[in-house]
Amino acid sequence: MASLEKHYPLPDAEPTHLDDGSSSNDSGYNGLDLPSTVPPSELTVEKQTPAQEPPPNGGFNAWLQVLGSFFLFFNSWGTVNAFGVFQTYYETNLLQDESPSNVSWIGSIQAFLLLIVGVITGPAYDAGYFRTLICLGTFLIPFGFMMTSLSTEYWQIMLAQAVCIGLGNGCLFVPSIAILPQYFSTRKALANGIAASGSSLGGVIYPIVFRQLYPRIGFPWATRVLGFISLFTTLISVAVMRVRVMPKQKRALLELSAFKELPYTIFCIAMFFGFIGFYGPVYYLQPYAINMGITNENLGFYLLPILNAASVAGRILPNFLTDRAGPLNILIPASLASGILALCWIGIKNLPGILVFAILYGFFSGGFVSLPPVALISLTPDLRTLGTRMGQAFFVASLGLLIGSPVVGEIVNQTGSYLGLQLFSGLTVFLTGIMLIYTRFIMVGLKVKIKV
């Protein structure tokens, strides 16, 4: 009974007496299993703590956390998704003496730090440093933009945009995904999808603002405006986000035994290949369209915002379906479709085709990049180790992010053609889908009791 009282609140109740004045419980205990000699006025009900209560799955405060997480995604993955516009600008203006591969290292290191720093910030979050992490990210990202605005050399941009903003992104990433399960259980995938759509909106707003401003006020002030936007939006997160339950157990940094589980290991390898190829179209769609004469520089700059705008729906709708169908069942078709589309990119030589490609790739890739954290839940027998296993998977994926874009950039540089880039991106992402299918078959064979 003590365990029941701990998890379920007991209603206030009075002993029921019969006409002869005796208690209805002949054993001498009332309906609360307490001694009948205790006066009713002294009966107390143990109040549940937030840790004992189930997530509210809605309400004003819960949706405020989604809003705060939305803006954390807006400034972490959003700046990564927006780098394509800087790739194009650097290749044609500020860093035109550098190869496309060298320019790609800036965006790749920024994305790599976003994930790899999560291995450290995860335990920091578990130790109670949630607000410290988001405040640190709120400082580093705007500061990185301001320093980028002053940069004129390749190494200066590398330090400011790649390292400083990348570290700030890493500080925001874990809080953006760790806070939502405290407020949502039955609708956690939908809440995650709405929050993750912030990264797509960031990938729309940042490039458009930059494109509109830099011809008028120059690169330095256009970049500073982006810094002010990041400062304002991250301050919204600082103002509204609150941890509902402080973790009681400190998370281990590593759980190498997880790699003895075949589904988890294959999933991690699949994410490595997926993130090697995923950002090829994101970073090089604009240069491809401009250099191939498909569109002029003005319209070419808007291909990335179009792709990211389509990704908003691609993050929300698949996550909505995930709560009903299971994450792997949605992640697999999203991966296969993204790979096939990247291969179809080879045959696109006109403006209508490139616009349709940007929309479709944005939609399907939105599900591809937003569902892995949810899918990892299906691959974790003991959810108390979810943070550690997620950090390990992100570490493996971060290696793909680090080398993917420079590799495809070097392919373009060596061959003078985009064909190798298109084949590399398409085949690696499609291979990810095949490996995820194998993962699902193993899970079914193991008779996992949850949706996959």
From TrEMBL:
Q: Does the keyword Oxidoreductase apply?
A: no
Any single GO molecular-function term of the entry would be:
transmembrane transporter activity
Domain (Major facilitator superfamily (MFS) profile) spans 61-452
Q: Can you say what this protein is called? A: Major facilitator superfamily (MFS) profile domain-containing protein
Q: Does the keyword Transmembrane helix apply?
A: yes
Give a Gene Ontology cellular component term annotated to this protein: membrane
Q: Where is this region: Disordered?
A: 1-55
Q: Which CDD domains match?
A: MFS_MCT_SLC16
Q: Which PANTHER family match?
A: MONOCARBOXYLATE TRANSPORTER, MONOCARBOXYLATE TRANSPORTER, PUTATIVE (AFU_ORTHOLOGUE AFUA_1G05170)-RELATED
Task: Indicate where this protein is primarily found.
Answer: membrane
Per the record, where are the segments of Basic and acidic residues compositional bias?
A: 1-20
Provide the family line.
Answer: Belongs to the major facilitator superfamily. Monocarboxylate porter (TC 2.A.1.13) family.
Which organism's genome codes for this protein? Answer: Endocarpon pusillum (strain Z07020 / HMAS-L-300199) (Lichen-forming fungus)
What's its membrane topology? Answer: Multi-pass membrane protein
Record Gene3D superfamilies: MFS general substrate transporter like domains (1.20.1250.20)
